[in-house]
Amino acid sequence: MARTFILTNLLVFALTGVGFAAGMEWNTEALHDSAVWTVRMNDAGVSTGPNGLRIETAKGRDWAIVAAETHPAGPVERFRVVVNELTAGAHVIVRFSGDFDGAGREDSVVPIDVMDAPGDTVVDLEPRVAWRAPRGLRLLQLGVEGKPDAHVLFGAVEFLPPTGNAITPKSGTQPGQSSIECVDLMPNLPEPYLMKDWKATARAFDRFVFDFNAQGEYLPFIWRDDAQVNIDAPTFGLPSYAGSPQQTPGSGAQEGITCMGTVLGATVAGIDKRKQENDYVAMCAAWYNRRNGLNLVLNAMNQETGGSFWYELWPHVVFYGLCDKYPEQPGFRDILRATANGWSDACAALAGADGIPDFNHTSFDFRTMKPVDNGKWREPDAAAGVAWLEYAAGNAFGDEKYLDAAKKSLAFLQRLDYNPFYEVLLPYGALAAARCNAEHGDAFDVDKLLGWCFGISDVRGGWGVLLGRWGDDDCHGLVGSVDNRGGYAFAMNTFVQADALVPLARYNTRHARAIGKWMLNAANAARLFYADGLPPEKQSSAAWTGDPKNLIAYEGLRHRWQGREPYATGDPIAMNWGPKTDRGLYGSAYVGIFGGIIHTTNVERVLQLDCLATDFFHGRAWPTCLYFNPWPETKEIEMPVGSQSCDLYDAVGHRFLARNVKDTARFSLEGDYAAVVVVVPADEEVMRDGRKLLVGGAVVDFNTPTETAS
Which of 91, 144, 455, 684 has its CA 20 to 30 A from that of 431? Predict the structure, then answer.
């Protein structure tokens, strides 16, 4: 979760709409020719000489970039940078921009790496950039970020020839499966393979953070809050980071994203949060801003709107998950309806002449019922968050008003020609679209939305799913910033993307293989967010001893930091803005999503992914699990099914895999294939309803071929 406005956004806006010619073929001698550097940003000072290209920040500015229209001579995997001089405390900027997503626009900015000191370094290109560089790269950007009058002197910049080890897309051969380029660039067998026990981690995390008697530095985390701002009862508080001095008992500064997130995560992992020392589910109603009259679930208990769409929508997404998991919780349905009405009204206020709301804004002010633009960034994927909330409310209440608002929000996304991914909301639009198509016969472009979820954002430079081998570890599949020091992944974003996309495989089985392969990579790499995943010298808060069982994840994982890679870290220590550690409870809160979804099987690297664990507000359904076999050969998979006789149906292959099985069922799964396996009671009636196949009255396949499965 990026809590600062980073330089990349400025660069995206600076370049949006600018078209650059292919330019010259790059030669490092261009560093000595000032006429080559035709694009100069932020009043950058430029001079050239025999020692290279000197770039200096202007008075009152903290960054400067110059650019040349150029491209490499041919395929490229790496580049070399020599920096002869650099002002102390400044860092180097080296970026490429061009049409890297194949959309025909030259407005994407894809930063590659930075240096903090003079020297000679060789950097691997981000795989998507390397794959497209010969045809997509249009602009080489060099610069410096630091105090006014900071400067950098580049002595050499060279594209290096391929080594033969480049990552190239490799799509699967399973019939009927759609490819996602980012996932195609991931390995089937990430190395090293060290799968964490996510369920055990989630349950132990819950015990730790909700322990009022925990002892140690910065402990206990939890406190009782008796302020009774929005409910006539106490609630609870947790800090967003271990060692957060501004979030303490009596401060009222606890975040709903953290506190409600811990309750939802634990619930998904199988813990009933109503039946512990306190009813923590009931306490979550404290974030419903009733007293100030907004009647919205927000990140603080007394908060205004208009600051950031995602901060105002994400607490609703979390609370809606709790509404689904605890349908009988007093007052929750009333909050669900009131907030769905609020966002439906916002859709109407944002609507144009065609009735489609325009979410291309920073936020929405519910006091004035008007959009807010701060002039710095926009968050158009708010449409995805609203679409999901309204779709969920439509299922909860059977009210067409909400479904209409959901579809209009999706229509906004449908007509975009740029990737709107800002923080966490976009995958929920993909899920809402897939469910609209499967359950209501719509035709939203799920391929487009999923491509964006795994692509590189056009509104927040470099944001998306990361690729690459960082040091000795495959780190493919984590979610965060491609452009921040060669890659900066975040625990929260990685966990919650699974929340939306694993259940999507039920409704759109064409992407089952891609989702299964991505989850294998992400679940394996996510262990590196934890202190036991890396040696102490590769983490920023190893000195903190308050978490001996390593249950609080680092906020993020950097590709490289101070010469080490990968490096578990976060924003607080590097930016010195308060918390004493980079160990983030706000991200760790959502580990229960992995804990509820991910289960290992009898075959190493073949995971069982529970498609119903986070399929909130779904209709009647039988147990459904996604399997992906990453091995080249067929594997025999064992699946616990209970003591009652049942059948196994594969919604990907549209066929029954086994009949009249119980206890431990077995089925064969071909190499590099996926299956969405539904466990149905044996001898139940099988019938069709249009494209849907039902067993015992519950849909097991939303898109069957013409012939009935047998």
Answer: 684
As a whole number of Å, the CA-based R_g of the chain is 25
Q: Token digits for 415?
A: 């007509």
What is the per-residue pLDDT across 290-333, written as a single tens digit (0 to 9) for each?
999 999 999 999 999 999 999 999 999 999 999 999 999 999 99
Residue 277 falls inside a structural domain: no
Q: What are the pLDDT digits (tens) for 225-234?
A: 999 999 999 9
pLDDT (tens digit, 9 = 90+) per residue, 376-388? Answer: 999 999 999 999 9
Q: Which CATH number does the domain housing residue 659 bear?
A: 2.60.40.1180
Q: Helix, strand, coil: what percent of the chain each, to 5? A: 30, 25, 45
Strands lying side by side in the sheet with 463-465: 463-465, 479-481, 488-490, 556-558, 567-569
Helix (H) or strand (E) run with residue 524 in it: helix 512-525
Alpha-carbon distance 431 to 450, whole Å? 9
- Count of residues making up the chain: 710
Closest CA to 143 of 27, 63, 49: 63
Indicate the residue among 127, 144, 163 that finishes a domain. Answer: 163
HSE on the CB side for 673, CA within 13 Å?
20
CA-to-CA distance for 113 and 392, rounded, in angstroms? 41
Strand-pair partners of 598: 609
Is 225 contained in some domain?
no
Q: Are residues 156 and 297 in the same domain?
A: no
Determine how β-strand 635-650 pairs with β-strand 655-669. antiparallel
Identify whether 646 is part of a domain.
yes
> Which pLDDT score is estimated for 76?
74
d(CA 481, CA 489): 6
Q: Is residue 442 located within the same domain as residue 301?
A: yes
DSSP-derived secondary structure for 308-370: -HHHHHHHHHHHHHHHHH-TT-TTHHHHHHHHHHHHHHHHHHHB-TTS-B---SSEEETTTTE
Which of 122, 138, 163 terminates a domain? The answer is 163
Tokens of residue 569, six digits:
């870290």
- The per-residue pLDDT of the chain, averaged, comes to 91
Q: Which band of pLDDT confidence, cut at 50, 70 and 90, is reported for residue 501?
A: very high
**Alpha-carbon 269 to chain mean position:** 20
Q: Let me know whether 440 and 302 are in one domain.
A: yes
Number of domains in the chain: 3
For the record, the structure tokens of 133 come out as 């560089």
| Parent domain of 43 | 7-163
Q: How far apart are CA 30 and CA 139, in angstroms?
A: 13
* CATH code (residue 146): 2.60.120.260
Angle at the Cα of 426 from the Cα atoms of 420 and 429, rounded to 5 degrees? 115
Within a domain: 138: yes
User: Which residues fall within 8 angstroms of residue 319, CB to CB, at 6 or more apart?
Assistant: 256, 260, 284, 287, 288, 297, 335, 336, 339
CA–CA distance, 154 with 34 (Å, rounded to integer): 13
pLDDT in tens, 429-487: 999 999 999 999 999 999 999 999 999 898 987 899 999 899 999 999 999 998 777 78
Q: What is the pLDDT of residue 498?
A: 98
For residues 11-17, average pLDDT: 36
Closest CA to 155 of 26, 53, 70: 53
Q: DSSP assignment, residue 697?
A: T
The three-state DSSP-derived secondary structure of 430-486 is HHHHHHHHHHHCCCCCHHHHHHHHCCECCCCCCEEECCCEECCEECCCCEEECCCCC
End-to-end CA distance of the chain: 47
